[in-house]
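Repro case for the chain-ordering regression, as requested:
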Amino acid sequence: MNVLRAAWGIVTGHMVTLKYLFKRKSTIDYPRVPYPHPERFRGVHELRKYDDGLERCIGCELCAVACPANAITVIGAENDPAAPTSPGQRYGYRYEIDMLRCIFCGWCEEACPTDAIVLTPKFDIADYTRERLVYGKDRLVVTDPFKQHLANTESAAQTEPGVI
Amino acid sequence: MNHLLADPWLRFILVVAIKSGVLIFIVITSFAYLMLFERKILAWFQLRLGPIWCGPWGLLQPAADAVKLVLKEDLTPRDADPLIYRFAPAIAVLTSVLAYAAIPFGTFPDGSPVAIANLNVGILYILAAGSLGVYGIALGGWSSQSKWPLLGAIRSTAQMISYELAMGLSIIGVLLLAGTTNLSGITAAQSAHHVWYILPQFVGFLIYFITATAETNRAPFDLPEAETELVAGFHTEYSSLRFGTFFVAEYINMITVSCVATLLFLGGGDGPFLATLPLLSVAWFVLKVMVFLFVLIWMRATLPRLRYDRLMAFGWKVLLPVAVLNLLVTAAIVALVKA
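-- result from build under test --
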């Protein structure tokens, strides 16, 4: 009797594994299929623009002051009145984030008075040299203001009307 | 050239050499894809995708593996016996390929078997070649001069010797029913009796399949290479192509026992539509072998490894008596029917 029960156990065990053969696989084919992240995942930064194409950054250096890892370097400059880079008086002339120092805490986001800098869900930034991991304005500023990520204050305003 | 072909002996040798070359090529290729098949199926059982990057669906993975293995450094331990250490993988793969000389993969339209040699003691020849395979493992483990390979080799030797007894006895039942030890004769007998021997010899089939799994050192009987206890068992010290050679031997043995199981219990190349297209028998044969290979992988994905003393107890105290009983009952029934 025990023998039969044990044999039956082996058969049912095989049925369990056979069921798993046809189940949906949990592996994500990662580089070919993007890994889904929560909307507010803190990844690589992005310098946003206004809808008219002017940069939001005013070169105030509050993000650099707030940064606990000293990863941000900002050098501001006066706008050219004929062709302004940002709507105010000053703009971020140089803006560099050392991705090797950054701890992705999001304090720069909190500090920014114009919601210029946001953290995006992009996270795969591996590279071969340290120099290439210091991101300048060429890689931080968004090209299309209509495809940029929302700032935290904006998403908060959308989810909780009346509270800013 | 024509002068050479006129000599019947030379022609015979040439034909056999060409047949063997083609067969070895096929066997090595099927080994490579069996490994991919196993990795893929095993991954699916574990909700993974398996190899997907080399070629479409990972189909070029075996080529990548082969190149990688060839490029690795070939290490010989300082204390190892250099001659035997280097020779052991060759013994393993040679004996595993030997069996294919006698396996009929189907029948030609004129009724002759698709095989290199139509031996009248085919099944004995295959069993003998299979038993020789233990030398590769035992010598490889012994000459490595390391404790884990030695333990693996001892386990493997003990396991293969004890399970071979039950295997031989389980096959005798089929031989009694068929009345021949010729492999194509056995399949022909199954077609003539209109029944595959898996039905009248179900107990024998179970014993054969269990012992065959143990013979090829497959899970749940993969004691000789139990990772958790013995690192990698008898091939722990091997690297590069010699390690790969042991792998080739193991997988070719898997195909061999599946072929034998198909021939003895599933009617070989027997199947529908053979009257119109006799060479379809090769396709039926390959299909049945693949079913057995799938079951071997399925078992690996399901069953945990046995403890060593229980493995020996199971072989000697369960399989052997049941095989003897099966043989006695079969012999009695065959004698009664004949009388």
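Ordering looks correct now. Chain A has one domain: 45-159.
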